[in-house]
Amino acid sequence: MKAFLLASAAALTASAAWADYPERPVRLIVGFSAGGGTDTSARGFGSFVASAPTMNEMPMVVVNQPGGSGLQAAQTVADADPDGYTLYIINNGTMSATALSTPEAGFDPRESLTNLGCVTQLVTGLQVPAGHPATTAAEWVEAVKSSGETVRWSTSGAATMHAIVGHLFMDANEISHQVVPFRGGSNARNALVAGDVAASFNGNQLVDGFEDSIKVLGVPSAERDPANEDVPTFAEQGLEGLNVTGPMCVYGPTGLPEEVVADVSAAIQAVTEMEGFGRFMGRSGLASMHLTPEEGAANLSQLYETFGPVVEQISAAQN
Amino acid sequence: MSAFQDLIGGFGMLFGDPQAVGFTILAAFVGIVFGALPGLTASAAIAMLLPLSFYLGPLPALAFLYVIGKSGRYGGSIAAILFNTPGTAASAATMQDGHPMAKRGQPNRALRTATLASVFGDYVGEIILIFGAVWIAQYTRTFGPTEYFAIYLMAFVVIGSVVGKSILKGLLSTVLGAMVALIGVDIITNTPRLTFGTQDLRDGMSLVPLLIGVFVISEIIIQAERMAKQVAVDAGIADEHVEDRLTFAEVRGLIPLLFRSSLMGSVIGMMPGLGSSVACFVAYGEEKRRAANREEWGTGVIEGIAAPESANNAVSGPSMIPLLTLGVPGSTVAAVLIGVFLIHGIQVGPLLFSETNMIITDAGDFFSSRELVFALFAAGLLGIAAYGLMGFWGGPLIGKTIARIPPRFLYPFIFLTSVAAAYSARASILDVAIALVFGVVGYLMRRTGFAPAAFVIAFVLARPMEEAFRQALLLSDDGVLIFLREPVAGGFLLVGLLVLILRAIGTNRAARRAAA
Fold this sequence. Notes:
Helices cover 42% and strands 20% of the residues of chain A. The radius of gyration of chain A is 21 Å and the shape is globular. A 6-stranded mixed sheet of chain A has the order 2-1-3-10-4-11. Chain A has a 5-stranded mixed sheet with strand order 7-6-8-5-9. Chain A has helices at residues 2-18, 37-49, 71-79, 92-101, 109-112, 137-147, 161-172, 185-193, 258-272, 275-283, 293-318; strands spanning 26-30, 60-64, 86-91, 113-122, 124-129, 151-155, 177-181, 199-203, 214-218, 246-253, 288-291. Chain B has 516 residues and is mainly α. In chain B, the strands form 2 sheets. In chain B, strands 1-2 form a two-stranded antiparallel ribbon. Chains A and B meet through α2, α3, β7, α8 and α11 of A and α18 of B. Chain A: It holds the Pfam family TctC.
């Protein structure tokens, strides 16, 4: 009897507490400094989310907690109270690449975080100088293989999503290559603009404004990217298809109450349907795109499987 | 004259953003006050206020910190003239004639000369920056890792050998800064270095707490020590004002001197590592050599104030040229500003002048980085006018007010603010510890004649230099020969070598003369 009373009391307080989530603004943690790509997307999302019907006009307030390439913030959210007032926003590609290449952190987002849905995506592209004679990725592969030269390509870091896609592409097409990692995508792009490298695997949003000097020959996704409809996928061009995109997803700790999961994931879907949000993302060269929590989690697992062997190969090459 | 049209566009963007105008004017005031506080420099003010700029858009943030750099250099002259202590190293030369003039009852004449000279020099420097940077940037766009490595290496050698009195101590300070910069994940191989197994140091030592430690906390320790020792400073000025005004004819007579000193300051400013503190002494020495009334210098002549003050402010604009055209900070103020650009997601370098390099803000506004840079230039021009007006009429009042604040209240307050600033940059207690540790390191460096400025600039330069070196090797089939094969890279390396040799000959000769 006592146990039953306690349980029902607990259930009552719980339902009272969650009855109208959210009752106060939600902290949306960004694992990078203010002003970067993740931060800009997060602030855009945070400013639109208050008008989603399930959010009771409560905003999501962006809090920057840079450190450990975003892993510290992920751990903070994983350890936070599962009350739905501390959430995390991160690109799946970034998070899986970082967690895999930092095994000493002992952090697995598939186990410690709950996916609540995704709002946009970063897509890697094979980028080459605009003056290159090849018009498709297939032609480019032909051209570099017959030239017999080592292809030097720039990318946004040693083991970022873009770098991993580059390694996968070069190895699958048996191209002799040398990666030149840069600190961040802008620096990698600048190396391509300056003509220091022959190609770049980099986020396609960074080509915005540089169309005179860079063209994108293909993307490693299963479907074309809504932000760049005219760029074909590798599979379409008869090359070995990959299925790598980096959706920007919202996460909470594990053990979130069902109502929170329902409210936040409904709000995420509502934001991706807002016209203003699409326009906002468009300015960064991105497109609004929705994945459900299940799709987001499946994408993360799939990235883990694809990236795992490549990350091991990259770190083995250093030792 | 496309730079001229862009500048008009820059004014349009500046005045379209009331927040940016407000922060530009606030910066003029804040810089004067910090500069006038004995011991605190423009770099200290910028380091402390940098975290505040996280909450501003890119233009107000950059304008705020950039204009503090200008007005801080000017503010130092108030302390030099009224209290006979240099508010900043940049105004050390101003003391020699500024204080004697104030002492004989003409403080306002001295302050107004300093104000007019600073404004004149700053405008000359700013105009050289606006037209020079655009012109240089078109040549640096095609620079890659090879050229960058050579430039960084040259900057390293020049900074290490010219900052401070001893070449050896200067170079050692540079090496120390470079070693601190090695902490963090190696970008080429993704291997953590010197992180002691913690996640906190994976992204490297952060710049803001390090700057706060080296520039602010070390200075507070020095002030505390000075108070404990009760060092008496000859700070008295006459109670009665005697012919305490600056006439139009005097100003007109100064114009050729102002032009010469401003150009000297601008040229010195363009060299990485040479800053206001060098420029003011060079201009003072050169004008004294030319002067007909040479023997009166040091007793309070008007030219002895105008020469160093115009030269030290003329440094401000041109010292941004290496930053904006190459991404290489040539001064400590520029080293801090590089952090502000990065915080707002803007890569510094020749592509800044690209009209298609778009930036978007939290508010959803978007503009090209070229527009932003020209709006920043416009803010610089406005900021000079603002501090000039404030200083011309308010300088004496600001000076008197600061003299009334007892140091035992002032410095603890600054200490607390700087700790809060170190914490707030990333909401990190580790950063507070870093600020305190580097406060002690900075203090020890100053007391032993090492060069904190070289240390900080090396810290900022070492990482990109190492990356450029290794990227260049990855791009090369011939290993290190790539640096000699590329003409631009080879040229910069040669300049570095020449500076080192000239400087070694110079000190050698000075040592022999001292021995003889």
